TrEMBL record:
SUPFAM superfamilies: Immunoglobulin. GO terms for biological process: apoptotic cell clearance; cytoskeletal rearrangement involved in phagocytosis, engulfment. This is Ig-like domain-containing protein. The lineage of its organism: Eukaryota, Metazoa, Chordata, Craniata, Vertebrata. Residues 29-122 form the Ig-like domain. SMART domains: IG. GO terms for molecular function: phosphatidylserine binding. It comes from Myripristis murdjan.
């Protein structure tokens, strides 16, 4: 997406981890999906966790949900759900009934065997207060057949 940023996270011991970051904007009260995709997920039973804040080098920080690749082993709230992964590369996190307090940084960690092999993806979530409002169709201005949705509200 347009909000993709790649960066390196380095510690004082000069260890660096490559991370991808994306920004997601959601509307309060609705479901938001935080993306996390990796070829490793489609390869079979791989541990995945999602946490709040900046990622650490070896594990999820402030873990929200964790799976062993077959089933969810830990979840802090029923509002957090992982995408069903039937032979796909998707490890995205859905947050149901989002609220302003959900805004912030999240990270997805796909835990692979060996030191420093884990894949980490960071998402910056922004929740806005607003409503989805239908824009009336005007056949004189556009050739589209459906009404468009737009987000009305502020940051």
């Amino acid at each position: 997406g347009g909000g993709d940023i790649s960066y390196y996270i380095c510690t004082w011991k000069s260890s660096c981890v490559f991370a991808d970051m994306e920004t997601v904007v959601g509307v309060s009260g609705r479901k938001v999906m935080l993306p996390c995709h990796s070829w490793a997920v489609s390869q079979g039973k791989v541990e995945i966790c999602w946490g709040r804040g900046e990622p650490s080098l070896f594990t999820c920080h402030n873990t929200l949900i964790a799976t062993d690749g077959a089933q969810v082993k830990f979840r802090t709230s029923h509002r957090y759900m992982l995408s069903p992964r039937a032979s796909s590369d998707d490890a995205s996190l859905s947050i149901y009934k989002s609220r302003a307090s959900d805004s912030g940084f999240y990270h997805c960690r796909i835990q692979l065997p060996g030191l420093f092999n884990d894949q980490t993806f960071t998402v910056h979530l922004i929740i806005i207060n607003g409503t989805l409002k239908k824009i009336p169709f005007n056949k004189n201005k556009t050739k589209q057949n459906k009404t468009e949705n737009s987000i009305q509200g502020g940051l």
